[in-house]
Amino acid sequence: MQKVFQLIITGFIVVIFFACDVNRVFEDYRPVPDGKWHKDSLMVFNIPVTDTVQNNNLYVNIRNDVKYSYSNLWLFIEIIQPGGTAVKDTFEMVLADSSGKWLGEGFGGLKTRQAVYRRNVFFPASGDYTVNVQHGMREEVLDGISDVGFRVEKTE
User: Fold this and answer.
1) pLDDT tens digit string along 77-101?
2) Beta-carbon neighbour count of residue 144 at 10 Å?
């Protein structure tokens, strides 16, 4: 019963948060089946871009179980522009501080952490951009990551 109440409250907060989010250009999450992220599994985000003048901040969002074994998460991120030009990068997402305290927000055993991936990025061409996110940890199957998200928001 308590878990149901937490889900209802979390859903209500998310709805209010997104209703007031005027800078958001794109935000989406991909679930990790059974919280077990295989090394070969890509989280794919398709981002339609029409504004090639506005600068944007790019964020990576991670939802992890508090039973996740590490304090960080290494990611391989690939952004493919319309026409096929690709940019690949490695990104470390810190999920817990040096004392082991989770940095994400959330109730119960699930924490959501958002980190800036890149600031002041502009998209050089309009069209559909594809963002592929893959974990870069040493384990073949990473246990404890429930969702992977990507966000684009306008800079002010």
Assistant:
1) 999 999 999 999 999 999 999 999 9
2) 19
Q: Could you report how far apart the first and last alpha carbons of the chain are, in Å?
A: 42
Q: Which helix (H) or strand (E) holds 4?
A: helix 2-19
Q: CA 141 to CA 134: how far, in whole Å?
A: 12
> Regarding beta strands 141-143 and 86-94, do their DSSP bridges make them parallel or antiparallel, or are they unpaired?
unpaired
Q: Would you say the C-alpha torsion 110, 24, 47, 87 has a positive or negative sign? A: negative
pTM for the model stands at 0.84
3-state DSSP assignment of residue 46: strand
Best CA proximity match to 26, nearest among 149, 119, 147: 149
Q: Residue 105 to residues 10, 63, 109: CA-CA distances in angstroms?
A: 11, 9, 10
**103 and 113 Cβ atoms separated by less than 8 Å:** yes
Secondary structure element (H or E) that encloses residue 43, with its range: strand 43-49
